[in-house]
Amino acid sequence: MIWRRLPLVLTIIVLGNLVSFYKIVTSPRVYQSSAVIQIETPAAIDGGGDASLPASRRVQLIEQRLMARTNILDVIHRLHLFEDTPGLSESDKIAAVRVSTRIESITTPGVSSESRMSLAAIVITSQAGTPEMAAAIANDFADSVVNRDRENRQARITEARQYLTTEETRLGAELADTDRQLAEFSSKNEDALPSSQEYIQSESTQLNEAENSLDREIMALQRDQLTLETGSADNNGRSSASLVQQIRSAEVELAQARRTLAPEHPEIKRLEESLKRLNSGGQAVSDMVRQHMQLLDEQLRQLNVQKQAIQHRREEIEKARAEMPQIAHDLENMTRQQRRLQDRYAEISRQLAQVETQQMLMDNDQAERFVLLERALPPEYAAMSNRKKSAVLGLFATFAASFGLAFALELLNPVLRRSSQFARATGTQPVVSLTYRPSRREIRIARLKIVYMAVLLVVGLFVALWLIGKIPGLPSPGMVSTGTERLGS
């Protein structure tokens, strides 16, 4: 079957392989270069920065910063990419750069991936159509990471510090205002505060005792007034007895005053003068009685004023006790607001102290740093691509297609060509089997097939050598730049 269909099989194999060669040599060559960035972690770990994140998250943040639209456009403008393709849209250019750039992380051995110290290095790999451009793109991204890292950290710290300082000032003013309102409220409602109830109860008891004492003093003064009034109403026959009583009373009052007052006190002098006038029996007895009555009236007035003050204070206490539940509720709300502001102020102060620590670490060069450990160099050879795989797959595909077509054509023309085929088909063994003798026409056709196959092999070999660039003077089509090679233009 293969011999009879050899021209067809050979034609499919040669054409298929030539097509595979063309696809292979015209596919763009891709050069790949990598830059390595080392992560230097200081002894004092910055707990509030990016270093506290897991390695996977940190690499993701770095990749997002590098692959941002504005950053990629800056790279394209700096390196003059896509100059030979002015019709290419901006989105296509950005997509091509993103596809050709890869960022990988190298973790520290023996450290969990969720640890903040697990990231050891970052590898930035770029692909382009020329070795120089691949190295230039990788180095540009690496320089962007190294040079902008400190600027980004400083900008974040400055922004956070400004915000926290402003927030701390605002909360401080609000907390001071709340403290002032709470103090004024407590001073205004001091009697109704829960903390004053024990004192108010003790004061009520003291007020009751003081009022009872005043009542007793008022009653004693009223008895003295009654005695004087009774004595002044007697007739003249009893004036001597009344005078003796007045003298005794003046002596008693003088003795009591001397025990309680200083010797130079005006009251003592007045009592002494009154006693002298009584002893002399002058006409001033009636004046002394009148003055004594005025003194008793004044004492009664003062005692009544004190009693009214006690009653007024008792009314204030009763009013405060009635307002106690509402005052306690308002006080609890104000206290809760004060505690909430204090907690927020403490949290803002803690964050501000943390930001100031980060600033101090950066100023002392103790923060995490990105160091360009190995710059990207132009590669000497193109990166491993799918060319060999495509060649092998194309070879197998052409062989399979040629043999499959030959087998299909053989099935479409089922001819018994040997005695064994005849015996299997009919179940009868042939008696005589003669060798087929081709005609002159068939012999000529067979010779033409041989010439065709020879010419096909020669032409196929020539085209294959031309495709791989082995024929001097004929440029290979593989020199045409397409696809990824545009990135290196």
From TrEMBL:
It comes from the Bacteria. The keyword Membrane applies. Residues 293-358 form a coiled coil. The chain crosses the membrane at residues 391-412, 450-469. InterPro entries: Bact_polysacc_biosynth/exp. The keyword Transmembrane helix applies. Keywords: Coiled coil, Membrane, Transmembrane, Transmembrane helix. PANTHER family: CAPSULAR EXOPOLYSACCHARIDE FAMILY, TYROSINE-PROTEIN KINASE. This is Lipopolysaccharide biosynthesis protein. It comes from Paracoccus broussonetiae.
